[in-house]
Amino acid sequence: MGDRNATSPVGLHRVIEPAGALPQAAYRLDARPDVGCDEVRVRVELLNLDAASLHQLVTKHDGDGDAVRAEVLAIISERGKMHNPVTGSGGMLVGVVEEVGPESPLGLAPGARVATLVSLSLTPLQVTDGLARWDGRSEQVPAEGHAILFGRSIAAVLPEDLRPELSMAVMDVCGAPALVARVVRRHVAERVAADGVAGEPVRVAVLGAAGKSGALSLAAARHAGLELGATVRTVGVVPVEHEAALLREVGLADVVALADARDPVALADAVGTALGAPADVTVVCVDVPGCEHGAVLATGDGGTVIFFSMATSFSAAALGAEGLAADVTMLVGNGYVPGHAAYALDLLRAEPAVRTLFERRVRPPAD
After folding, report:
1. Using one digit for the tens of pLDDT, what is the confidence trace for 29-75?
2. Which one of 58, 125, 193, 272 counts the least CB within 10 Å of its CB?
3. What is the predicted pLDDT for the residue at 2?
4. Integer Cα distance of 81 and 20 in angstroms
């Protein structure tokens, strides 16, 4: 790998194969623990697998947790990172900073407990405990080992008022609410510019609304409207009644719709009925493939579709929109918006409904 002191801020020096690839696209990374001049080594405490990756693995192994655990270990061992070869995704982690290179720009100090805000699919990672405390079915994975952050990685020190598992659950999806808020603000501003007043409400549909990114997206849409003195009407779309009952109980969405996001016509009908018109903004937070056409069909002309699911086929989305003659803007949620972690944590603190959903989802750590 050459002189470790000659590091690349984007991690090129850690790529084993293929040469010249960036770490996320690379097949295999060097996860050795020695730290380069601008790197940081983190002692791993918890991994968080992204929802699409976990769903794929659990489905593949028919819910056999031991088999899922064995495959995750094999992926990490072979690739030097947690990079699901089917979904192309990974997740993120929480750990304690062990060593900081003298030229690291991340502002981290040894002993700080941090959450990495970059994907495990590009983070050099070694696991040393065989994931023995993990059941192979939950997103949060107790683990021992180490991870390496590059000069252009992103990490946030965990807040003291939230337990680490809850903070990690929020930070895992913190790019979603920040981007939703930005897009909703833009739609409000465009409406005011055209009409002189906010006028009709901005209509927002969130698919997979009972999940982590879905709940935060609903809250972000509401708060974006309040900030600008505009009305935002939201529908939370879920596929099963127990999730619909949960959303109704906490009151996070203005209306809850029961629909399979993989059925384009049924989804569009459900959204249109719930909102009184097609959505101005549709946010896709599902963890299964096949929801692209429904999201496009549920969105009105001039609207925006935001894809946060790693199960999305972007070719299907583009070709589907073309085939439907849909005048919509489609955005890929890349997980990063400046200030996204602080914004998501503030939503959790401010919205009891979001806090309730996250507390129910995140189990206390095993003894």
Report:
1. 999 999 999 999 999 999 999 988 999 999 999 999 999 999 999 99
2. 193
3. 42
4. 17
Distances (CA, A) of 201 to 225, 262, 282: 9, 27, 14
Question: Is CATH 3.40.50.720 the right assignment for the domain spanning 175-361?
Answer: yes
Contact 155, 40 (CB under 8 A): yes
The residues of the chain scoring below 50 in pLDDT are 1-4, 365-367
Q: For CATH 3.40.50.720, list the domain ranges present in the chain.
A: 175-361
- What φ, ψ does residue 121 adopt, rounded to 5°? -70, -10
Task: Output DSSP code: residue 142.
Answer: E
CA 265 – CA 275 distance, rounded (Å)? 15
Q: How many helices (H) and strands (E) does the chain have?
A: 11, 14
Q: What is the CA radius of gyration of the chain?
A: 21
| pLDDT, tens digit, 9 for 90 and up, residues 102-150 | 999 999 999 999 999 999 999 999 999 999 999 999 999 999 999 999 9
User: Please, what is the Cα angle at 178 between 202 and 95, to 5 degrees?
Assistant: 155
* Residues whose CB is less than 8 angstroms from the CB of residue 5 and which lie 6 or more positions away in sequence, other chains included: 36, 37
